[in-house]
Amino acid sequence: MSRTLVISAIICAAALTLSIQHSSLWADEAFSAWLASHQSLSSFGWSLFHGDSSDLQMGAYYLYLFGWVKAFGASEYALRAANIPFILIFSFSIVWISSVIFRSRVAWVAPALLPFVWHYASEARPYMAILALSTAALASLLGFIHLPAPANKNLPWICLTSVFLGSCFHMLALLPVPPLLLLAWSNRLKWREWIPAFRVFAVPFLALAAFIVFTFMRGTAYDYPSPGLRQMASVVYELSGLSGFGPNRKFALDFRPYLVPVTLAAVALVMASVCAWIATRKLLPGLGAAVGLAIAEAIVLSVILQKQIDVRHLAALIPLLFILLMAAMERPSASAVTAMLLFAGVWLAADIRLALLPEYQKEDYRDAVAKAISLQKQSGGAIALAADPVAAAYYGMRIIGDAPCFPIRQNCAEAFARAGWDRGPDALDAEQWPASRIDSWLQLQHDDVVFFGQLDRRHQNSAWWPVVKSNGATVTAVHGFDIDVLRRGDLSGRSGRP
């Protein structure tokens, strides 16, 4: 292994590690924190198996995070730092592919700047791990194809280990398997050397398949829209990095203020793609077909499930796109250099915007809960929580009851009790309440009501907003939330209906 390869991988890993943020957790990260913060393994297992099957399908990630939290704590940074081992795997894998397969010291730079990588490097979810393990599996397969024996004798073991671990972290890590098999077939892979590894992994993979079938038989509660051209276009928009130049689509869809940066970035990406196509003199056999198969898999899966796949669900397929980009850099040329500079420039600008501009930050549960705590203590009234209860619990709300889908056990309530509340939320999971239930509940209140409401587009049709707008609420805006005090004397109108 050359010194340049090692130094480049260390630089890539160090940059991604430094990007890990201390910012507020958002709802899905808080759920990861909640599961990982159980005090005992039995309590963790009980909650996981009594929850939704979609969580069981990534149970190994939660188990890994459970062990990580026991060693390093459950702070925002500690939870996200669980990605560091996978950042190292990703960095060494992508630099190794660039150096060994494509004989380029710099071909890895543009793919490593893709905003998807930087976003999930700093998120307490399994997608950085899946990206890293999928990249390692692809690197192993390509290495076996290109390296002579005996230098490649350990690569089948690395490949299958990476695929298996990734699939335990999330079943969608199995998506690269058909494209990898197509690549292997196209390059006339000698399977004899793989037989020992296949024999060892046959039983674990069969057990994993049986477990996945079991989770589907239990039923799942996937909450995604139906597939369509608009939804699929949004996946391309996110994956290409254009989302770093447009609106934060979690809160708004108005592109008018962003037309100039989005247009300039899109033109630059099109130019980069054309230059990359010109520079690519010879593709790895089967690579184009493998990428096409990966795209077809995503579309077919979405159609079969009648659920739109989100961009994060494609984490295991993204390394195939990296290979397409690096293929253009294999032989230095004016077109190759232009393509790399354009891709790298656009994605670096998107990374900087996404990291620094307030409008792109995650919803600020930390400050919102702190403000709600302060207002509740002043008013002494009830709390209506129309936001994620686990994220609120992480930052100090005392939660007792069914939240989000099974009981939060006492040890977790204690683990999350970082700040004391005089009383917990009287209206838990209130964002789904119909107007009639809101009216009935408000009639029972004898003091001011603190309303904790989330502002993203999923919550914009909540029946609470007419209450807030029509009853003279004192509003405190925190990024992603409205913290409103509904004064007792103004509650007569309630939901604002005549």
Task: Going across the biggest sheet, name each strand in turn.
Answer: 1-2-4-3
Quote the average pLDDT. 84
Structural class estimated from helices and strands: mainly alpha
Q: Biggest β-sheet, characterized?
A: 4 strands, mixed
How much helical structure, as a percent, in the residues? 55-70%
**How much β-strand is present in the residues?**
under 5%
Give the overall shape, derived from the CA principal axes: globular
The helix count comes to 23
- Amino- and carboxy-terminal Cα gap: 75 Å
Low-confidence stretches: 400-423, 493-498
Order of helices and strands: HHHHHHHHHHHHHHHHHHHEHHHEHEE
Q: Please compute the radius of gyration using only Cα atoms.
A: 25 Å
Number of strand segments? 4
Overall domain count:
2
What does this protein structure show overall?
There is one protein chain. By secondary structure, the protein is mainly alpha-helical. It has helices at 3-18, 27-36, 41-49, 53-56, 59-72, 76-81, 84-101, 109-112, 115-121, 127-146, 155-169, 177-186, 195-218, 229-239, 259-279, 287-305, 318-328, 334-356, 365-379, 389-394, 410-416, 435-443, 464-470, and strands spanning 382-386, 449-454, 474-478, 481-486. Strands 1-2-4-3 form a 4-stranded mixed beta sheet, covered by helices on one side. Helix 16 runs antiparallel to helix 17 (318-328). Mean pLDDT is 84; it is low at 400-423 and 493-498.
Compact summary:
By secondary structure, this protein is mainly α.
Features of the shown structure:
498 residues, globular, 2 domains, 23 helices, single chain, 4 strands, mainly alpha
